[in-house]
């Protein structure tokens, strides 16, 4: 099987899924289906193509794509990129099973640590994961905004408790995006957990605070108080990962623990100064969880900061900052607290 022959599904073609599907299609793959339940989005994709506002670079990208509703799926796929919310994994995957080839795979790009829940339905041998390092905002009607710079887009892929035999195919499929974005877009991680925890650390530090304060990632990194809190959350994630025996994978070619892990003296000062620079290419990114909460939906905080808290308790590492983020986000969801920068006082 080669990339040009593979049948690919983007299940959950919201903001991130639309970007991925559009870039794969623009890269030359002709068998890519973008699947979503959002009626207006499907009709917009069909009528005008996938319209991507390049917020960080300027301009707009428009790509004709094949858009489907879930009930319109026919036949079987070689690769399914799962890009929905984690809480619905069991229901979604049970429905997808008849449409995945016997030797087909599911590659989850979801945040947090989603592979276990996917493997429970499709099996370890068919479960793969991708840690994505770019952000997008859903606009609707076939349009999304890519909020990271194109040159900063990355995907780190790996197998989940299997021999990784499908990684070359996954890499070939995603490599077509290199022509549209950057040559370093996709990389294979021998230890998927290391890539997952690197991405989880960034999400826990910035996505949660984005919900709590209403700010972009760049604003979180710039403000004195939120920068200190973000660094503290990063350190909690590093401590839990170390206790689990996991070494964080490099992000954007940089060792997170070396660059941002300083706890005392000059090293802490360097970490504090470097953080806004490290987030520069993602400064306009707004947490998808913030959009969910603003639209009256429950977000995935329990799968981001909540995952760090659970793993921390399992290995005896305290995570008070992550616990505070989870508590505040739930208070906001339940109308007990508003999205406001002044929430930093609760830390």
The CATH superfamily of the largest domain bears the name: NAD(P)-binding Rossmann-like Domain
- Global outline: globular
Helix content: 40-55%
Tell me which CATH architecture of the largest domain applies here. 3-Layer(aba) Sandwich
Major sheet attributes:
8 strands, mixed
Distance between the termini: 52 Å
Low-confidence stretches: none
CATH class categorisation of the largest domain:
Alpha Beta
Report the strand count: 12
Order of helices and strands: EHEHEEEEHEHEEEEHEHHHHHHHH
CATH structural fold name of the largest domain:
Rossmann fold
How many domains is the backbone divided into?
2
Instruction: Specify the structural class.
Output: alpha/beta
Give the percentage of residues in beta strands.
15-25%
Number of helices: 13
Radius of gyration computed on alpha carbons: 19 Å
Mean pLDDT: 90
The order of strands across the largest sheet is 5-2-1-6-7-8-11-12
Give a verbal description of the structure.
It is built from 13 helices and 12 strands. It is α/β, with parallel strands linked by helices and 347 residues long. The strands form 2 sheets. It has an 8-stranded mixed sheet. Strands 4-3-10-9 form a 4-stranded mixed sheet. The radius of gyration is 19 Å and the shape is globular.
Topology:
Blueprint: E1 8-11, H1 15-26, E2 32-35, H2 39-48, E3 50-54, E4 60-63, E5 66-68, E6 77-82, H3 89-96, E7 100-108, H4 115-122, E8 127-132, E9 136-140, E10 143-146, E11 155-159, H5 167-175, E12 186-188, H6 192-213, H7 217-222, H8 224-243, H9 256-260, H10 265-278, H11 288-294, H12 305-315, H13 320-333
Parallel strand pairs: 1-2, 1-6, 2-5, 3-10, 6-7, 7-8, 11-12
Antiparallel strand pairs: 3-4, 8-11, 9-10
Helix pairs in contact: 3-4, 6-8, 6-11, 6-13, 8-12, 12-13
